[in-house]
Amino acid sequence: MKAVLAAVLIGYGISMILGRKEKEQPVWKRGSFWLWKKMKKRGLLPRTWMTEKYFCQAAAVLAAGCLLALTVQIIQEGQLDNRTVTALERPEYGAGSTSWEMEYTWENGEGLRQQEKMMVQVEEQKYSPEEKERLLDEAVKMVEQEYLGENSSAGKVEYPLNLMEQAGDIPAEVSWSSSHPQYVDWRGALGEQIPPGGAQVQLQASLKLQGAARIFETTVTVYPEKLEEDESMERQVRQTLAMENEKEGEQLMLPAVVDGKTVTWRTPEEEPAKILLVLTTVSSLLFLWRGRQEEEKRQQVRKEQLLRDYPELLGKLTLLLGAGISMRRAMERIAGDYERLKEKKQTEIRYAYEEVRNTCREMEQGIPEQAAYERFGERCGLLPYRTFASLLVQNLQKGNQGMQKLLREEADRAQQQRRDRAKVLGEQASTRLLIPMILMLLVVFVILLVPAWLSFV
Length: 457
Fold this sequence. Notes:
Elements: H1 2-18, H2 27-41, H3 52-81, E1 98-107, E2 113-122, H4 129-146, E3 173-178, E4 199-209, E5 212-222, H5 229-245, E6 257-258, E7 261-262, H6 272-322, H7 327-343, H8 351-364, H9 369-380, H10 383-398, H11 403-456
Helix pairs in contact: 1-2, 1-3, 2-3, 3-11, 6-7, 6-11, 7-8, 8-9, 9-10, 10-11
């Protein structure tokens, strides 16, 4: 394995040396680019999809993976060579046995070293006979103290017994047997057939610890289990139903009286109204959430379109003002051109031109020109349009002198901002493309490191 990895890296290094003249390529790419040209010249590559880009990327990933794998293997072999294994740690008391995959080497009759793998089973730590006796004595005492549970004495057992399967932290196995399982089972649960006058039951616990054993025996007198009123009623109803089920007939008669109490039976009410209410509420909330999302998306699209059309709108207005047309007439001309294109379905809805059209209609309806321009900036809601509206108002107050220059400067500034936004969007797109590349690199690392780690462990 090491030889194969080293051969790949040596070959990649030789190709980098031979491709050192490819100075227009990055350093890491020169060797693979030189190799790609040579293989393409000899017709050794598929012509349809194996481009220089994919070939160089694949070669770089292969070289990086081989370098990483070789490094891991060298580190692993160094750790194994520097570690002489003469003993294996046994598991803790009561933890059970474990297995280790080991390698052993020896010299055969011909003086050659051979290596084999073997699974070595390691048993848990063993107690001495004295420790076993001491731990079993402690376990018996613990069982004797805890087996009654909530009962006050063995002469009157009315609650389930606490028949533990392990005595606390002592790793001794405890198994129980009962002389009358119908009264008390091996878990300590009381049966339903206990006579009212009580019954004696012999219990035996067998404790085992690494081959040593101890027996604990006791006798308890059990009585019908004390239950809460609802639990007692449920048990009696079940017993009555069991008796009714033993009878013949086409129908099971439900008991009307149980333990002197009147019982009324009815089928559970279905609640489709509640289900429909919940579903309707959830659906309404989903529709509201969807409407909010769509509105936010529409506002974002509107904002981006307004910013995108701003330089174009300023350019048209500057051109018309330069031709000697007044500001109001220029606005009407821009709105009219947009209306004609829209009627011919040669353009989609453009929010900036829609607001220009609305401004012209307001002026036609008698709204003062200055107020119409101010409302235009407020409706657009963006800082560039507010600046534009203030320029229009300034034009009304001070005249056309210098207006064309101001609009041209604003148009240049808007174009620069548009280029900056395009640059930012391009950087964001390239950043998003890094995520799948990083994920692919992580997959390569996992493929290389996990087998090495598993073989070492």
